[in-house]
Amino acid sequence: MKMKGKCVFTYQIEYPTPVSMMLRPRREGSQSVYKEGFEIEPSVHFTEFTDNYGNSCQRATLPPGTVVITSQVEVDVLETPPLPDPRPAFVPIEELPDDAMLYILPSRYCQSDLSEIHKLALEIVQDLTPGYEQVEAIRTWVHQNIEYKYGVTNSNTTALDLANNRTGVCRDFTHLVIALCRSLNIPTRMTVGYLDKLEITDLHAWVEAYLGDQWYTFDSVQDHTHGYRIEIGHGRDAADVAMVTQFGSMDLKSLDVETELLEEEGAVAQNA
User: Fold this and answer.
1) Contact, 254 vs 7, CB < 8 A?
2) SMART domains from the entry (predicted)?
3) CA 31 → CA 63, 66, 172, 258, distances in Å?
């Protein structure tokens, strides 16, 4: 299936401000990029680099005034697969690949080493078989017990905050799932990008957990994990996968996001 994603950031800027951006899709796994565009208006020089997680990033200094950043991609993607059978098993720490070890450690927003987080994880999984069943139980618990609501969390909200307050958005849902899974020594990372199955189209965040011998997708915002996804980037938590990181004062006036499934017979669009 071909899928299109587009996001438009509009900023009002008072002084020249350096930024780091992560707005181009990853080129790996189940997605193949065949068209993309990236534009900053007014036009400024930018450079590109690959970060420590393999994400494609850009750097620029944005000028004073109104600045519009537009990124759009068209990608061949596979639909998120149904639950695997048999369920993939927990991987003992001594058998994990080196590049997965980073994702069992606590991070800024995912305090998996806190006793409150570990206690909650044990309450959720109880006597379930270690591995996929535990992650799916955690995903389901977060979906059923956390209210999705805009405007009640911010860039400082952590997994522990969400466990206590029980209200947030996809970023917060993902942080809590990650923290709970890592407290059980299951490597878990945050992935961001586009999803076609959202009631309100926006940039989205979900979870990938390393089980068996690969990474599996889990989405706690959905009643069950499904849909087509374009992956922009992944990392330990939101600190690693911010679409735009600013080093100075910038006022975000608007963020417009579109997704579209492209088929030979026509297209099914969702806009926001």
Assistant:
1) no
2) TGc (SM00460)
3) 34, 34, 26, 18
